[in-house]
Design goal:
Blueprint: H1 12-15, H2 22-31, H3 37-55, H4 61-80, H5 84-89, H6 98-112, H7 130-141, H8 145-156, H9 161-170, H10 177-194, H11 197-203
Helix pairs in contact: 2-3, 3-4, 3-6, 4-6, 4-7, 7-10, 8-10, 9-10
């Protein structure tokens, strides 16, 4: 399980944030939930450390990438409410920092991980780096139920439009393959528009297919 290279590290939007301290990036991330650059900058700063910890605890590279992504998804949600200054005050003199906090969270994720079999994992780290994956998941939650279901069936299970229509018809939904195709197109367009503008600039402008971020 080799340590990957993340191209977003060299993107101008991310590089422009390198001078910020961890606390500044955390505050910016919490104060600007409509922007993805601050979480991406935190990810770029500590991705190698988190990946190294996971690499030494998981034998399968596929499962390792899966756990890496899910660890960052957990970090993404936890950072929203993290008060690092309070955590430092309550650490009883320990040398607590964002790096130490991330290491502790990663250790918890490793210890609590229930990894699925390799053959059932659809996640690709190369196609969907964790920041993109987190924001695609967030964008997916904003879709209406039917387009969201259709997109998930198409991307997660690789079902054809005909098979999706047949499944929905069996569930009582009067829908044709052509209507499924239209729903998919609308769903993908909505997904992209729901992504933060800077996330689209960092990832999609480099022709990364965001549809591959779905699992």
């Amino acid at each position: 399980m080799q340590t990957p290279n993340f191209s977003e590290l060299n993107h101008p939007v991310v590089k422009s944030l390198f001078h910020h301290s961890d606390q500044e990036l955390l505050t910016l991330f919490q104060n600007h939930p409509d922007q993805g650059r601050f979480f991406t900058a935190i990810f770029c700063r500590y991705a190698q450390i988190v990946h190294s910890l996971i690499r030494h605890s998981v034998r399968s590279p596929v499962q390792g990438d899966y756990l890496f992504a899910h660890t960052w998804l957990h970090i993404y949600h936890e950072l929203r409410g993290l008060d690092l200054r309070r955590e430092i005050q309550e650490s009883d003199g320990e040398n607590l920092s964002l790096q130490n906090w991330l290491i502790n969270v990663t250790a918890v994720c490793i210890n609590q991980a229930e990894l699925p079999p390799v053959e059932s994992i659809h996640y690709s780290l190369q196609s969907a780096p964790p920041p993109l994956w987190c924001y695609v998941k967030q964008a997916l939650e904003l879709l209406a139920p039917l387009p969201r279901l259709v997109v998930l069936m198409a991307q997660t299970f690789r079902w054809s439009e005909t098979r999706i229509a047949a499944y929905l018809q069996a569930e009582g939904e009067a829908i044709s393959p052509a209507q499924v195709k239209a729903l998919l197109q609308k769903g993908y367009q909505s997904l992209e528009s729901n992504l933060p503008e800077d996330i689209r600039a960092i990832y999609l402008d480099e022709n990364l297919d965001y549809q591959e971020a779905l699992v």
